[in-house]
Amino acid sequence: MPLLFIIIPLVELYFIIVVGEAIGAFWTVILVILTAVIGVNLLRVQGMSTLAKAQRNMAQGQIPAMEMMEGIALAVAGVLLITPGFITDTLGFLCLIPASRQAIIRYLMTKGRVRTGFSAGPGGFQQGQNRSSESEPHDTARPKVGRTIEGEYHRED
Questions:
Q1: 131: CB partners within 8 A, 6+ apart
Q2: Are 15 and 31 in contact (CB under 8 A)?
Q3: Is 70 exceeded by the pLDDT of residue 120?
Q4: What is the pLDDT of residues 29-85, one digit of tens each?
Q5: Strand runs labelled E in the chain
Q6: Residue of 67, 63, 37 lying closest to 51 (CA atoms)
Q7: SS3 for 150?
Q8: Could you please report the per-residue DSSP string of 20-40?
């Protein structure tokens, strides 16, 4: 991972020099600034749209899980768009397109497992029972659903 912090800037610098030789240094700087400005404006619009979707889901009593993941992807997109360079801008713009952003999120969610220090069982949440992905077989089937207790409630203020 630390190697990426060396390789990515060097590759970005190489492409900036190549583009600068092709269209000139002035236009290259203008292009880098323009992509950052356009990207930040698109980021603002997409962020507000994602926030509105999350609020709609919460108003309907649903957990806005995908919207939360999209928020993280949009934060990454913002960092990538502010970073000068054409490769990071391309990756940032991919995170701004809703279809590609959701495809990336789904791909990452199928490849990784979340490890926490808590597990939910019949007795509620218990600390210290996390399992690593190596000790469990990878199950591609739907997750097992626990027991649901239905009921009604009345709010009294």
A1: 115, 119
A2: no
A3: no
A4: 999 999 989 988 988 998 898 889 899 988 988 888 888 899 899 999 988 988 888
A5: 118-121, 124-127
A6: 67
A7: coil
A8: HHHH-HHHHHHHHHHHHHHHH
The pLDDT assigned to 29 comes to 92
Strand-pair partners of 120 = 125
Question: What are the boundaries of each domain within the chain?
Answer: 34-111
The residues that bridge with 124 in the sheet, in sequence order, are 121
DSSP structure class, residue 142? P
* Other Cβ atoms closer than 10 A to 122: 7
Q: Which two tokens stand for residue 150?
A: 């239905």
Please state whether the predicted TM-score (pTM) of the whole model is above 0.70: no
- Per the document, the length of the chain is 157
Higher pLDDT, 146 or 24: 24
- b/e map 39-71, b = 16+ CB within 10 Å: beebbeebbeebeeebeebeeeeeebebbebbb
Indicate if the alpha-carbon torsion angle 11, 17, 18, 24 is positive or negative. positive
Chain Cα centroid distance, residue 140: 22
